[in-house]
Amino acid sequence: MPCPFMGSLNQAFVRNYGSVLMKQYGNFCPIISRNFRTLGQDETKCPFIQNTNTIVADAPKEMTEDIVESARPYSYDKFFNEQISAKKRDYSYRVFRKVSRLAADGMYPQALEGLDNRRVTVWCANDYLGASRHPTVQDAAISSIKSYGTGAGGTRNIAGNSQMTEKLELEIAKLHKKPAALIFSSCFVANDATLSTLAKILPGCVVYSDAGNHASMIQGIRNSRAPKHIFRHNDPNHLKELLSKSPEGVPKLVVFETVHSMSGAICPLEEMCQVAHEYGALTFVDEVHAVGLYGKHGAGIGEERGIEHMIDIVSGTLGKAYGNVGGYIAGSSLLVDTVRSLAPGFIFTTALPPPVLAGSLAAIRLLAGEEGRSLRAKHQAIVRYLKLSLLVAGLPQMPSVSHIVPVPITGADKVALVAESLMKRGHYVQAINYPTVARGAERLRFAPGPYHTPEMIDSLVTALIESFHENNISFNQFLVNGTCRECSMEYKVDMPYEETFKYPMIAT
């Protein structure tokens, strides 16, 4: 007999929640209480809900199938297994190598790899200048642990705002020539929290995002739910075209990076800022892969080109060239205070611990001085040597004018095999594949530093050639009789290491 109450509900709803409804209201139903022969001690309940495993003999087949189906719990492990299996099939599954980087004198940039602690040379760390193992930075961190302990004790609002936190923010603001700065637990959080907050609270804000932006900026824009437009990577003309169609008087954010982490490209910073300001937009510029490495004091591409004043909001990291962990933004006092007061990603996150604060402060001051300038010069020289060595060997490399040296190897399976071959030969570099880069744009990403030597690079290039051959990957020779096929420029390929300081950075 159809029930007028249950029959009026959606079938899927009844299938999922019918048992609950019958348990609550079954004793009010005359059909259940009088005409059904019930099972169990409770004579007022429907036999179908006494036990999910009990099936009435004369019930229609489709009803019993629904009951059995609703009794089965969702197979979570099966779903997770399918997801992981798919990642493994397309070679995008992430394998974290067991690598412990060494910090002792004479050991850096080597590491212990695997369970047998085999020594390898690290080529892909973003500790670009070795600040993490510098004695000045280490001593500052150790001293702060002895004075203040290892942890912050909570958020800055609850546990207290340490003097070291304020000193670090003042130093960052001074570095970027801004009135104020704010530090976060990471630069991912800095980008996400700042962009999501500003784009959300500015009335009618429209965001213009570079197509090559980092996932942290994309996530912040997405979380703001503000309307967005994506302009072609490092293309100020396309940006101008999009901005010209925007309504006047509407708040706008233009978001981009200076140094692209995966290609090594450097943006046309001045042109991008000029276009943004022409249409009344604020510029949000990510200098994560530039701070510590460019400019007289290591403030990044903005300082190197003398246009820091054109950047409205700069974001940076303490976890790469500065050798610690954490991220930050710098900008006007009112803007920074607004983010400090409204961004959940800042408000509800535990503050950076004392050793990180002290180590970061020491690293920024170190790299802003003469030793920092010396390290940057050595860094650029060793980068030039690697690029030239790859060119002479005929190995592929993507055009890069920065310290990042990408070697393209198409196919997630192929790039993983080459990375494994290199590891067997004592060189650690991580294969880069989807979703970090697009499918078909796989690569090895080399980040040589001032503590790598020409001998290490010679060994690496030999290992690369052997790895290409071992995995049946062909490569073309780009240099014939001292002449580059790409640009017809002649280079002195047998120059000593010291002479590379006199030459501009080389890119194929």
Characterization of the model:
There is one protein chain. The protein has 508 residues and is α/β, with parallel strands linked by helices. The chain is built from 18 helices and 16 strands. The protein has helices at 11-25, 30-35, 61-71, 76-89, 135-148, 156-159, 163-175, 187-201, 215-224, 236-243, 269-278, 301-304, 333-342, 344-347, 354-368, 370-393, 412-424, 454-470; strands at residues 99-101, 110-113, 118-122, 180-184, 206-210, 228-231, 252-257, 282-286, 313-317, 327-331, 405-408, 427-428, 431-432, 443-446, 479-480, 483-484. It is globular and about 90 Å long. 41% of the residues are buried. This is 5-aminolevulinate synthase. It catalyses: succinyl-CoA + glycine + H(+) = 5-aminolevulinate + CO2 + CoA. Keywords: Acyltransferase, Heme biosynthesis, Pyridoxal phosphate, Transferase. Pathway: Porphyrin-containing compound metabolism; protoporphyrin-IX biosynthesis; 5-aminolevulinate from glycine: step 1/1.
Q: Quick gist of this model?
A:
Helices cover 41% and strands 12% of the residues. It has 18 helices and 16 strands. GO terms for molecular function: 5-aminolevulinate synthase activity; pyridoxal phosphate binding.
